[in-house]
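Methods — Computational structure assignment.
A single polypeptide chain was analysed. Its primary sequence is given first, followed by the predicted tertiary structure written as structure tokens.
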Amino acid sequence: MPTLLTLKVNGEERDVLAPAHKTLLEVLREELNLTGTKHGCELGECGTCTVLVDGDPVLSCLALPVECQGREIKTVEGMAEGGRLHPLQQAFAELGAAQCGYCTPGILLTAEALLVDNPTPTRDEIKVALAGNLCRCTGYTKILDAVELAALRMKGAHP
């Protein structure tokens, strides 16, 4: 039996009618057409489906939408503001940190949460924060470089 949910996604209240057994991942993709959040392992092991809930990284394949009512959900579609890429998105594009791009939305959101909590992370702190986000295409070096560049730009210390 479908349940009427009101979810605040990317700053906008959205009403959605979805079966109670659907995960947040399924509701975002199938009901709200926010396809930037990707299906990965669907076991909570790869980080591909990461979104932010109240600013914290959450594996949407393990979260139920009913648990997210009244909370702020942010997907990769909500990162850019006013037609401008988020500094993380810009740095990833410039440095070629996204190869196939499948894991990128989850990594971007996890990195955003890190930079909000710690605007000047060390490379090791970035590695720890991103440890739950698996990428099959890279050696992670460009991803780490891009997070460092975005951190500098967000502080106004680098063009």
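Note: Strands lie at 2-9, 12-19, 50-53, 56-59, 72-74.
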